[in-house]
Amino acid sequence: MSDTILHVEQVEKTIQGKTILQPISFKLKSGRALALCGGNGAGKSTLIRMIVGLTQTTKGEITLNGMTKKSHKKQYVKSIGYMPDDFQFQSAVTAKETIKFYADLKGVDQQRIDAIIKQVGLTEHLNKSMGAFSKGMRQRMLLAQALLTNPPLIVLDEPTNGLDPYWVKSFGNMILDAKKREQAVVFSTHDLHVAEEIADDIIFLYDGKVISSGPIEKYQKDGLYNTFQHLVLNLT
Questions:
Q1: Phi, psi values for residue 72, rounded to 5°
Q2: CATH for 4-89+153-235?
Q3: Nearest to 214 by CA among 27, 61, 23
Q4: What is the pLDDT tens value at each position of the chain, 236 positions in all?
Q5: Which part of the chain is the ABC transporter domain (predicted)?
């Protein structure tokens, strides 16, 4: 039996005749983390939104444990823990009310809420309004709701944006722990150092096109930063 959890097959996205993402295919196995690397406009967020089912593909198919969103919508969505980029919480709602809202949606008990909030370092801030949260604190709340259920697939869009070095390191440790639990992880990032620390596989995107992909070992000799710079220079 295959341990492939996510299969993206010849997926592309076109909006009003403009190609946003050229055909892309890959498989991701349980217990592995895939980093989507590239600059703004590379297509990372578009791909992520298609994986989690927020945006339809123009062509191609995405399956999660053999399911498509169309064939098993409820089960497909429940199988993903998703952290969007720069989500705007309701500013007047407290952190406690916010995480309880997500927990109720996902059927999570108070013990799990307490554990995940402690893990992201927000226990002492639960009575604060979300409007009083810094960017980094909002990011940690988004990460908490994504990890609440220990889903088979975790999908994170620019998860380290706004995090200080301590929490970037803590984030990395949380992802490494998720991999040990055989969860699969897809995350986008501008931070190639983070990708080097926790990713098993890399996809480099530029202007909606895959310019290189493979296991992390493929790029260890030159490093991800030098590799990406070289790839982009060859395109310009």
A1: -140, 60
A2: 3.40.50.300
A3: 27
A4: 458 999 999 999 999 989 999 999 999 999 999 999 998 889 999 999 999 999 999 999 999 999 999 999 999 999 999 999 878 899 999 999 999 999 999 999 999 999 999 999 999 999 999 999 999 999 999 999 999 999 999 999 999 999 999 999 999 999 999 999 999 999 999 889 999 999 999 999 999 999 999 999 999 888 888 888 888 777 76
A5: 6-232
Burial (CB < 10 A; 0-12, 13-18, 19+), residue 208, is: buried
What's the pTM? 0.93
Span between the terminal Cα atoms of the chain, in Å: 44
Nearest to 72 by CA among 57, 53, 89, 59: 53
**Phi, then psi, of 200 in degrees rounded to 5:** -100, -30
Q: Write out the two tokens for 68.
A: 């498509």
Residue 190, token pair as written in the block = 């501008």
Tokens at 184, concatenated = 């699969």
DSSP count for the chain of H helices, then E strands = 8, 9
Sign of CA dihedral 37, 40, 46, 52: positive
Give the side-chain half-sphere CA count within 13 A for 49. Answer: 15
Do 143 and 174 contact (CB within 8 A), yes or no?
yes
Q: Which two tokens stand for residue 33?
A: 């983390």
Q: Which residue has the tokens 């993402």?
A: 21
